[in-house]
Structure formats: structure tokens, C-alpha cells
Specification:
Layout: H1 2-32, H2 66-139, H3 143-152, H4 155-164, H5 167-174, H6 179-191
């Protein structure tokens, strides 16, 4: 049995030696072509050695996740764009709300003024109606008494009544005014 074991060891060692010599021959052939088994250069893509054929040479540094990384970068850019747009929209919404409040306040002020104007117009209508009625009464009164009454009134009321009186009667009243009062009433009439 010992002889078989020694024979077996001799066969294994001889096979191992044959393989080593075979590999050595390949190494010598590669060294003739200036190619080293331990060099990294053959793994890199050489653009000058590419042919115009249909095979494409891949970059050794490119991995399977390159497309995913590119997609992730573009998604991140899009997310930033959307955040910027959302911030802009929020800013504009706040600005529009402020403008809306400002406009609502101005509308309230205008409605208040409109109410006052309506009340003022209503009171003006009532005053005009009262002045027309007084003008009719003063048309029936003698001019000298009317002039005496007008000299005791404020200029605006007197001017309003004279404007509503008949022209002949108003002209007759002017003759009985004292000159200063006549000038004051004439100025008031021109300002109306």
C-alpha cells in the first residue's frame, strides 16, 4: 500500500509540474506581446483600439447603478424646483390675501362714504324742497320785507331761495338789499 501511495504522489507531483510548465509557456507568450497578467491597463477601455463594429466597449468604472444615480439626481432637481415653486405660490397667496384685506377695507370705507353721501343727498333733496316752498312764499311777500328777512339769514340759504324765486320778484328784492349783503349773497350764488 505504501508503494501505491508513493506512486500516486509521484503522479500528482508530475501533473502539477506539467501544469506549471504549461502556464509558464503562456506567460512567456504574453510577455512577448507586452501584455502583463498583473496589469490593470487591459481592463480599461481604449478608445483608440475600438473598431467601428457594432460592439460597444463599456467603461470599467461604470456600474449597474449609473442610470439609477442619474435618475435620482434628476428627481432631486425636480423636487427642488417644485419646492421653490410651492414657496413662490405661498408667498403670492399671502400677498394676494393682504391685497384682498386691503381692498375689502377700502370697499368698507367707500360703502360708509356712500351711505353718508346718500344721507347727505337725501337731506339736500329735503332742503331743496323746503327752499322751493319758501321761495313760493317769498314770491307772495313784498320785496322790501323779503330783503329785510334775507339780511338776517345766512348767505347760503338766502342765495338758495333767491335762485328759486321768480326772476321779476328776485330782481325787485335786490333793490332793497344793503350793498354789502348783496355782494355776499352774489358771491355765494357764484360758488354754488
Amino acid at each position: 500500500m505504501k508503494k501505491i501511495l508513493i506512486a500516486f504522489e509521484i503522479i500528482v507531483v508530475s501533473l502539477l509540474m506539467v501544469k506549471i510548465f504549461a502556464i509558464g509557456g503562456i506567460v512567456k507568450k504574453l510577455e512577448l506581446y507586452n501584455v502583463s497578467l498583473w496589469s490593470v491597463n487591459p481592463a480599461l477601455a481604449d478608445s483608440s483600439s475600438q473598431t467601428t463594429g457594432s460592439t460597444q466597449v463599456k467603461d470599467a468604472f461604470e456600474d449597474a447603478l449609473t442610470n439609477e444615480r442619474t435618475l435620482m439626481v434628476s428627481l432631486e432637481d425636480r423636487r427642488r424646483q417644485l419646492e421653490d415653486r410651492e414657496n413662490f405660490i405661498r408667498f403670492e397667496e399671502k400677498r394676494l390675501n393682504l391685497l384682498n384685506k386691503e381692498i375689502a377695507g377700502k370697499i368698507g370705507i367707500l360703502q360708509g362714504r356712500e351711505g353718508k353721501t346718500a344721507v347727505s343727498q337725501e337731506s339736500d333733496k329735503e332742503e331743496n324742497k323746503r327752499i322751493k316752498e319758501l321761495a313760493k312764499e317769498y314770491d307772495a311777500t313784498p320785496p322790501d320785507k323779503v330783503a329785510t328777512l334775507f339780511s338776517k339769514m345766512d348767505n347760503k340759504t338766502a342765495a338758495g331761495i333767491i335762485m328759486q324765486m321768480k326772476n321779476k320778484k328776485a330782481g325787485a328784492v335786490w333793490e332793497f338789499f344793503n350793498p354789502e349783503k348783496a355782494v355776499e349773497i352774489a358771491k355765494t350764488i357764484t360758488m354754488m
